[in-house]
Amino acid sequence: MVLNSFIRYTADSLCIDEVSIDAIIRETGTPVYIYSLKRARENYRRLRSAFARLGARVHFSLKSNGSLAILRALEEAGAGFDCVSGGEITLALEAGARGKDIVFAGVGKTRAEINYAVSKGIGWFNAENALELRYINDAAANAGVEAVRVALRLNPQVAAKTHPHMATGHGAAKFGLTADVIRMVLARQAEYPRINFAGIHLHIGSQLGDNAASLSAVDKLLDLIRPWPQIRTINLGGGLPVAYRSDETIPSLDDFVEALAPRLDGYEVLLEPGRAIVADAGVLVAEVLYVKRQAGQIFYIVDASMAEMIRPALYDAHHEIVPLNKTEGDLVNAQVAGPVCESADVLARDRRLPLLRAGDKVALLTAGAYGMAMASNYNARPRPAEVVVSESGDRWRVSRRREAVEDLCRLEL
Ligand SMILES: Cc1ncc(COP(=O)(O)O)c(C=O)c1O
Fold it and tell me: Which pTM does this prediction carry?
């Protein structure tokens, strides 16, 4: 199996950068998320240079991974941040970002969050509702801020080629504003004297499997803004795909940029990628608790579950699973399932895997995005620890401790 340049077997033992995962889990236990800071930064730089001819500014979408260690590493590399809640804004600021380097998106911003964002001098609001504009305008007036920059989020009514739960730009999705509403808002700009309608925003989904849908959405956006020359900034959102399967090919980034370049000439371009920066920088490591043979199947019951990694249950997502210690024996068809009391708690179905025994360890790959960020305490499971491997590639540290059972009771009154 082809892994990537940072995760590979050295002397039959799985390593992240130069560090043996076995050495890490001997100290941390399992389940544990492990991230390569080097890989996350490499991905950020790769995207920045792929989009360099558009002069695009990259805002890391921190909903995909809110680890402060990762945020700090990306901030130091020059990234801005795409936040979707007051909490995420706080994390971005904590990581060292300045308010002006943050874009604040979200379909249901509260007034408190809007006031907070205005008070922090947020760079852009991606707005999705006419009432929200009123709130932003009032927040700016109350705070004595002359003008807040807003990018209206267009719902282009384009169906993205992706899982239905990750498509956000079709007419039935709750996201964005239709072109008609945007025209109406722009025609009435004078009603929002504290708002500078200088941008337009688009995000038709995640893990986009087709550049054509994105380009068609961009064309609709350009048609829409033509009568308003003061709109000079186009935020293309996130959604850049990653290969979750070892043999998967994804749409070419270079072709995408090539097609965008003539269209976006003269505009300032913003991006909000999440998974393309962190997904393949992270793994989730688990221990096989039991091996069960039942109804002609082999089940590996591991100590990670849908509570730690919900993507397979939520999106039918595929994550490659590999043993920490490479074996040469026969492969068998197996299901990898967690301890949670749900039939959906299956991390991999019908997967070719080596014969494993209780006590063996496995790594779930491409787990750095929407893994820990979506983890829950379901079944009263304390959330796992997070480990980061340093940029030098040869040192590691626990960046977030494993939750303890006491943490589960801490907020009870
Ligand atoms: C508005 C917006 N921007 C950016 C992203 C990041 O998407 P991805 O991680 O697929 O790049 C999302 C994901 O849901 C989003 O909704």
Answer: 0.96
